[in-house]
UniProtKB/TrEMBL annotation:
It is found in: Membrane. Keywords: Glycoprotein, Glycosyltransferase, Membrane, Signal-anchor, Transferase, Transmembrane, Transmembrane helix. Pathway: Protein modification; protein glycosylation. Belongs to the glycosyltransferase 14 family. One of its GO terms (cellular component) is membrane. Coiled coil: none annotated. Pfam families: Branch (PF02485). GO terms for molecular function: glycosyltransferase activity. This is Beta-1,3-galactosyl-O-glycosyl-glycoprotein beta-1,6-N-acetylglucosaminyltransferase. The chain crosses the membrane at residues 12-32. InterPro entries: Glyco_trans_14. It comes from Batillaria attramentaria. It is a single-pass type II membrane protein.
Length: 255
């Protein structure tokens, strides 16, 4: 009997040690620091240090524009926002393809500077991954804007680069894809002619490539010149309501 209780107490202390080690590990993982005055937790620094797991960037506060008015479609505020953006950029349209390529060679910098969200943010979104095809042929900077807006780690993205796209553009796209395990270039590049079957062909190539990833629930086709009006969360809500139904536009040419 005595032997048994000794074994149990040893087990207990081993468990306690494991628990303590786990707690210490978690604390160091979060970079908890007691640098704040009077030994209080320095929450601001804790948050900033833990933040890279979700947002690898600092939010930018735009005080000149009322964002909630912009989102509700207030025409005056929209005009103000456009003007603000123009004034701020001094007519600069953004990085050229070689500059994007240079940025994408440092993935951490790319994710931080172009505000990529690297968490699925909610359980609901995490359980409802989406597959995208994005047909692109120019302006890596604009494609990057689109990708950073729709990117979530649970989704998967097939980027189709036009066969006749410039080399610098293709290299930039390859470098961007190399930064993310769930972004890839289509296995075959089609010479896209608008208004012909080749447009659908690119999407078929992507759809086939996307079969390599089995977990997604819905497929969304985009081009590099688009920008989302809904967040990933809103899309998940909408597509959940679809309950397996599809939203497909069918057109027919009469010639
Ligand atoms: C891209 O921008 C860089 C620096 O701003 C410049 O040196 C380079 O010539 C530009 N490349 C092209 C292809 O315009
Ligand atoms: C997907 O798998 C097929 C073979 O099953 C392969 O030919 C293709 O390159 C793969 N695509 C990607 C993007 O990995
Ligand atoms: C997505 O595919 C549908 C059906 O083929 C097509 O009507 C639509 O134009 C495509 N969207 C884009 C952005 O290419």
């Amino acid at each position: 009997m005595r032997g048994l209780s000794q074994v149990q107490s040893t087990k207990f202390s081993v468990r306690t040690v494991v628990l303590v080690v786990v707690v210490i590990f978690l604390m160091s993982g979060l970079h908890l620091s007691r640098r704040g005055r009077k030994g209080a937790w320095n929450w601001k620094s804790i948050f900033r240090k833990a933040a890279p797991k979700v947002f690898s960037w600092e939010p930018i506060k735009v005080t000149e524009v009322d964002c909630s008015k912009v989102f509700s479609g207030d025409k005056m505020e929209l005009r103000k926002a456009v003007q603000h953006e123009k004034d701020k950029s001094h007519g600069d349209v953004g990085m050229n393809d070689s500059e994007v390529l240079r940025l994408a060679r440092t993935c951490d910098k790319l994710k931080r500077e172009r505000t990529f969200i690297t968490s699925s943010l909610s359980e609901e979104e995490s359980n409802f991954p989406l597959a995208y095809s994005i047909i692109v042929y120019k302006e890596a900077n604009q494609v990057l804007n689109l990708l950073s807006a729709i990117y979530r780690p649970q989704n998967v993205y097939c980027v189709h680069v036009d066969k006749k796209a410039q080399k610098s553009f293709r290299f930039a796209m390859e470098a961007i894809a190399d930064c993310f395990p769930n972004v890839f270039l289509a296995s075959r590049s089609v010479d896209v002619q608008w208004g012909t079957f080749s447009v659908l062909e690119t999407e078929l190539v992507c759809m086939q490539d996307l079969w390599n990833y089995t977990h997604w629930k819905y497929f969304i086709n985009l081009t590099g010149q688009e920008f989302p009006l809904k967040t990933n969360y809103e899309l998940v809500k909408i597509l959940t309501a679809y309950n397996g139904a599809n939203d497909v536009i069918v057109s027919r040419r009469w010639w």
